[in-house]
Amino acid sequence: SPPAASISAIKKPCGLLLQVVDRDGLTQSRATFGIEPAYQQIVATERGVIALRADQRIVAIAADGRMTAQLSAEPGQRVLGIAVTGAHAAAVIEDAQSHRRARVFAADPLAWGKVVPANDEIGARIAVSPSGARLATIQTEPLNTRTGEAVHVIDTATGAELAVAPTDGASAVGMPDED
Question: Which residues have C-beta within 8 Å of that of residue 49, sequence separation ≥ 6?
Answer without folding.
Answer: 8, 16, 18, 42, 43, 60, 61
